[in-house]
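Input C-alpha cells:
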C-alpha cells in the first residue's frame, strides 16, 4: 500500500548530515546489503471480501517509529506515548481506503486505549471507534498480561453473532491470541469459534528482512549514536561477529543478527561472543517472536523495520579486560584499514594482492 512505502530520500538525507569521518564506514558494508526477500503470498482483501473466513480482523496499529513506550507513559496523555508519525497516519488512511474499496465494512470497530491505536482506528474512516481495555499492550508490564488477555477473551465472547469486528491493537496482543507475528498496519483474520488465524494484507505485499538489511539498519542506528561499525569481524575464538560497534568511550558491542526463528535455533554457540564485548545483543526484524530470544540477564535485543532500529531489551554490561580491549581495538582498526584499501583499489580497477582481510588483523588477543 502507498502508506507503507519507506522514505528512502529521508534516509539519504539523514546520512548526509553526518560528519565526514562517519561516512568512511560505508566502505565496510557489503554491496549486497540492499537486497530484500519477498514474503509468502498472503490472503488478499478481495479473497476475504468474497469469502469471509472469520469474525474478527485484528490489526496492529500503523507505523509508530521506535519500540515500547517512554518511562513516563500515561494512558490519557498522548505526549507521553509512542505515536504515529506522518507515514503511519498516511498508512492508516490508506488501509481504510483499501478496506472500503474492497467492500469490507466492519460492524464494530474497537481499539486499544493507547493513542497510536486509537488514532489508527479513527484514521481508517470506517465508523465510530470504541475503546476496549482488553486490547491494551502488556509489552512493558504497564498492564498485567494475564488479566488483560482474560478481559479480551471475555470481550470477544460477548461479540454479537454474525457480525465482523475490527480490533486495532498491538503486536503482543495479536501474537498472544492468534500465534501470528505482524508488522505495523498488518491484519490477521481470526475465527473465534475454531481459533484459526490467517494473515490478511492489503495493497503492497510485505517483505521479509534478510540479515544484510537488518545489519544496514543497525549501522544507521549506531551512526546516529556516534558509534562506528564493522561487519563480519573474525574473533580469535574463531567465531565471526555479524556486526561490531565501537563508541567514543571505546566500549565494544557485538550484534548477532537473526533473520528467522530457524536461524536462532540453529545457533548454539552465541554465548561465546559475550567474552569479546562489553555488551552483546541480538538484532531481529519487527515481528520476530521475541519469546525465543534470551532474557535481559544474557543479551540485549534490537528490533528493526529495515530502516529504524530500537533497543527493545537492555543488555547486561560486562567489563572487558584492558589488554583484551586494546588488542580488539587494534585489530578492528587494522581490518577496517585493510578493507577500505582493498575496496578503493577494486573500485579503481587496480590489481589487488591475494592477502586476505584477516591477515591485516592477525595479532593481538
Amino acid at each position: 500500500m502507498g502508506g507503507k512505502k519507506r522514505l528512502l530520500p529521508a534516509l539519504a538525507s539523514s546520512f548526509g548530515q553526518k560528519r565526514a569521518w562517519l561516512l568512511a564506514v560505508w566502505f565496510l558494508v557489503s554491496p549486497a546489503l540492499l537486497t530484500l526477500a519477498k514474503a509468502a503470498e498472503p490472503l488478499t482483501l478481495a479473497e476475504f471480501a468474497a469469502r469471509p473466513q472469520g469474525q474478527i480482523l485484528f490489526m496492529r496499529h500503523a507505523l509508530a517509529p521506535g519500540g515500547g513506550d517512554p518511562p513516563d507513559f500515561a494512558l490519557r496523555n498522548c505526549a507521553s506515548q509512542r505515536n504515529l508519525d506522518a507515514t503511519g497516519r498516511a498508512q492508516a488512511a490508506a488501509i481504510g481506503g483499501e478496506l472500503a474499496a474492497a467492500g469490507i465494512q466492519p460492524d464494530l470497530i474497537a481499539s486499544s486505549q493507547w493513542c497510536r491505536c486509537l488514532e489508527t482506528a479513527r484514521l481508517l474512516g470506517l465508523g465510530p471507534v470504541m475503546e476496549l481495555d482488553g486490547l491494551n499492550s502488556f509489552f512493558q508490564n504497564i498492564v498485567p498480561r494475564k488479566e488483560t488477555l482474560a478481559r479480551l477473551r471475555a470481550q470477544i465472547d460477548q461479540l454479537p453473532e454474525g457480525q465482523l469486528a475490527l480490533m486495532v491493537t498491538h503486536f503482543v496482543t495479536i501474537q498472544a491470541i492468534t500465534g501470528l507475528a505482524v508488522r505495523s498496519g498488518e491484519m490477521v483474520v481470526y475465527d473465534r469459534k475454531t481459533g484459526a488465524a490467517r494473515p490478511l494484507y492489503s495493497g503492497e505485499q510485505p517483505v521479509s528482512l534478510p540479515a544484510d538489511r537488518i545489519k544496514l539498519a543497525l549501522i544507521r542506528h549506531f551512526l546516529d549514536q556516534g558509534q562506528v561499525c564493522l561487519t563480519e569481524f573474525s574473533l580469535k575464538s574463531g567465531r565471526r561477529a555479524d556486526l561490531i560497534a565501537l563508541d567514543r568511550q571505546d566500549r565494544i558491542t557485538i550484534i548477532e543478527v537473526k533473520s528467522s526463528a530457524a536461524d536462532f535455533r540453529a545457533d548454539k554457540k552465541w554465548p561465546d561472543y559475550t567474552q569479546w564485548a562489553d555488551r552483546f545483543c541480538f538484532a531481529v526484524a519487527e515481528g520476530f517472536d521475541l519469546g525465543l530470544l534470551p532474557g535481559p540477564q544474557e543479551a540485549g535485543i534490537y528490533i528493526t523495520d529495515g530502516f529504524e532500529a530500537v533497543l527493545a531489551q537492555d543488555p547486561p554490561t560486562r567489563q572487558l579486560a584492558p589488554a583484551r580491549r586494546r588488542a580488539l581495538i587494534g585489530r578492528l582498526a587494522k581490518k577496517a584499514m585493510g578493507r577500505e584499501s582493498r575496496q578503493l583499489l577494486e573500485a579503481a580497477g587496480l590489481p589487488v594482492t591475494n592477502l586476505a582481510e584477516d591477515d591485516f588483523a592477525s595479532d593481538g588477543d
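The radius of gyration is 23 Å. Confidence is low (pLDDT under 50) at residues 1-41, 359-365.
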